[in-house]
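User: Hi! I have a protein structure encoded as tokens and I'd like to know what sequence might fold into it. I'm fairly new to this, so please keep things simple.
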């Protein structure tokens, strides 16, 4: 399997610059590129990447998307004087030409295609291209919004042609709508295009009706264009994550792309003058990590917008760090999407219900609201307490941005353990594990006996229990002391091991431990009020155990070889986990598990976004294949699932809805509709 992260940067792309006064275009400066690259150098991320050179895109490649007229106009600007350049630029909405613009735009296309080639040929697993000018506003026959050629759209056509790809996902997290990309693919079912964007009921540039949630694609492309309009400024980390959990990711898993391209604009980040949003740089680590679970990890990130130099460059670093598989920093702030975000999410889900099996059983009885949607900004606010402040003074705003970015500096510099995964040599699993693993010496028996008897005196009387506790505690200790990131232990008595692990971690000082049980296990009741959240995934309801805030029972039985568990992980487990913000995760896999191996790998992969990636896996299962897959997931390998994802049955959707309704006041990231009285 491919490993490594490509980084593409060519200083020449800083030569494209504005030569005259233009208050609309003057934010698209060369420093956007150089500052991002310098920050990558500062964090020593450049030397950890595979350097891939840029090249010029060929005319043939540009013509995959653009008209020959457009190409000829662009070429003709190379020899123009300033006056002529200004005149041609005036033909477009928000674009400027410089004599070297054609050369730069062609390098931007070529750099993007070099990245696609590196990933598709297996030279690297993923990568990022720092390019200028950006691309997603550019259309077949027009420059627009600082964009001349649509780098990402060309890359998608190129990948289809050169590698025969049939399903490509484009995720556009830039704060502007990539209307250019939408127009290019709106009739094409082989490219799924997702964009969220500042919209404000069509008040915000480019102010198009077709940027709204009801533009779902045309003809054979119906259902393959997803617009999530933000109707308020101030959207933050939880709004973005909710959009991924409740809209993009389920669609993406059902679509099952062979390659993921990101139109990676950071004007959706905090401090940006265009976006006016609140998401901190850490959120881009999470978004990147979530997308790394698709397409076997084949992820190409291509720069689009981003105009606050500090916010932009820190967010670029977060993205590259995540591509390199460093632990994921925690997101800050209360985890609850705002009302306006929930409204948008609900609307796009309803609009897409006819096209996605996963949405088939959605309740859309509120649909009459949609037909009366207003194109005027709503001045009234039905629930101000859950909404962002509309107006903040500029002084406050700047200070707040500085504070956030300072906080972020602590996050990005947190130490990276040199070794990711710890295990003991107790079983055959050790030599099956992918490197790098750290084999830990078991803890001394007497020490453990003393330790565990504090908590569970009768447990340690049994010799095999004591033995497995020795292994588990040795590993847990390394995780708690941050010597390793995660660990895996096989235990004949998983529930006992987990019971002790939870007590030990809370004793150590952890405030929130998320514990996921998969399979039949005797769950030792926890007395650590609120410091442990249990999610129990099993086939049958345990008698007398109904769900409560800190004990959630999710009954889920997967059909053999048909993985429908993704919808429960995305729509339920992740939202609960992100609401809780654990500082450690313990996952126990026991006998009679009702979830297949690919579902379990997915669970491990996705939960690594939390608790700074600290996960202890306790496996009570003799299936070496399972242990191997869990170890792989912990080491950061992407899940390969051979297109086995299927949507859940109506019965399961119904079950999940009841649980969601019961728990969404406690775990607010579950909220994805405004009906039922949020
Ligand atoms: N009144 C990108 O972020 N603003 N482009 C035009 C006209 C243009 C943004 C305002 C913003 C373009 C790649
Ligand atoms: Zn933008």
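Assistant: Happy to help. Inverse folding works backwards from shape to sequence: for each of the 678 positions I chose a residue that suits the local structure. Here it is:
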């Amino acid at each position: 399997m491919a490993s490594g992260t490509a980084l593409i940067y060519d200083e020449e792309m800083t030569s494209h610059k504005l030569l005259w006064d233009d208050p609309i275009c003057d934010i698209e400066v060369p420093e956007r590129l150089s500052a991002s690259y310098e920050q990558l150098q500062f964090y020593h991320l450049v030397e950890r990447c595979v350097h891939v050179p840029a090249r010029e895109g060929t005319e043939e490649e540009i013509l995959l998307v653009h008209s020959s007229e457009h190409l000829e106009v662009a070429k003709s600007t190379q020899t123009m004087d300033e006056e002529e350049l200004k005149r041609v630029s005036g033909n477009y909405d928000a674009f400027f030409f410089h004599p070297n613009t054609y050369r730069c735009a062609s390098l931007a296309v070529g750099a993007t295609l070099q990245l696609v080639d590196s990933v598709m040929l297996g030279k690297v697993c993923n990568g990022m291209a720092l390019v200028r000018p950006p691309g997603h506003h550019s259309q077949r026959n027009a420059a627009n919004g600082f964009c001349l050629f649509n780098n990402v759209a060309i890359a998608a056509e190129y990948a289809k042609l050169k590698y025969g790809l049939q399903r490509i996902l484009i995720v556009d997290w830039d704060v502007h709508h990539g209307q250019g990309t939408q127009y290019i693919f709106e009739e094409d079912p082989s490219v799924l295009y997702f964009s969220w964007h500042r919209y404000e009921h069509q008040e915000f540039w480019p102010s198009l009706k077709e940027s709204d949630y009801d533009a779902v694609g045309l003809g054979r492309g119906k259902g393959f264009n997803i617009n999530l309009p933000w109707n308020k400024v101030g959207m933050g980390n939880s709004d973005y994550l909710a959009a991924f959990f409740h809209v993009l990711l389920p669609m993406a898993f059902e679509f099952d792309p062979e390659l993921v391209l990101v139109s990676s604009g950071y004007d959706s980040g905090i401090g940006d003058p265009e976006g006016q949003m609140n998401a901190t740089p850490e959120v881009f680590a999470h978004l990147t990590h979530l997308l790394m679970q698709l397409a076997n990890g084949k992820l190409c990130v291509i720069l689009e917008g981003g105009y606050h130099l500090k916010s932009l460059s820190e967010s670029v670093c977060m993205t590259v760090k995540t591509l390199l598989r460093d632990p994921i920093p925690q997101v800050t702030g209360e985890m609850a999407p705002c009302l306006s975000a929930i409204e948008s999410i609900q609307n796009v889900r309803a609009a897409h219900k006819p096209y996605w099996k996963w949405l088939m059983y959605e309740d859309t009885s509120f649909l009459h609201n949609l037909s009366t949607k207003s194109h005027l900004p709503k001045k009234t606010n039905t629930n101000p307490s859950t909404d962002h402040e509309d107006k903040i003074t500029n002084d406050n705003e700047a200070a707040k941005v500085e504070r956030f970015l300072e906080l972020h500096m602590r996050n990005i510099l947190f130490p990276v353990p040199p070794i990711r995964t710890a295990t003991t040599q107790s079983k055959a699993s050790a030599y099956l594990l992918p490197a790098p693993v750290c084999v830990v010496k078991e803890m001394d028996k007497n020490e453990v006996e003393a330790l565990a008897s504090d908590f569970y005196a009768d447990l340690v009387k049994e010799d095999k229990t004591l033995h497995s506790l020795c292994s588990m505690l040795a590993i847990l200790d390394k995780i708690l002391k941050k010597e390793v990131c995660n660990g895996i232990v096989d235990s004949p008595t998983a529930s006992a091991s987990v019971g002790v692990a939870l007590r030990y971690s809370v004793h150590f000082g952890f405030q929130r431990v998320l514990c996921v049980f998969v399979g039949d296990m005797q769950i030792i009741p926890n007395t650590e009020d609120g410091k442990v959240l249990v999610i129990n995934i099993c086939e049958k309801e345990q008698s007398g155990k109904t769900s409560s805030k800190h004990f959630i029972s999710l009954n889920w039985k997967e059909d053999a070889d048909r993985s429908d568990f993704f919808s429960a992980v995305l729509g339920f487990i992740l939202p609960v986990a992100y609401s809780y913000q654990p500082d450690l995760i313990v996952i126990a896999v026991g006998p009679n598990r009702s979830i297949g191996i690919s579902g379990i790998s997915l669970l491990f992969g996705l939960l690594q976004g939390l608790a700074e990636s600290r996960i202890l896996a306790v496996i009570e299962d003799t299936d070496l294949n399972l242990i191997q897959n869990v170890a792989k997931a912990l080491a950061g390998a992407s899940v390969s699932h051979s297109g086995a994802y299927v949507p859940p049955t109506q019965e399961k959707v119904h079950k999940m809805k009841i649980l969601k309704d019961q728990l969404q006041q406690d775990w607010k990231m579950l909220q994805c509709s405004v009906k039922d009285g949020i």
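A useful reference point when you look it over: The mean pLDDT is 89. Feel free to ask if any position seems puzzling.
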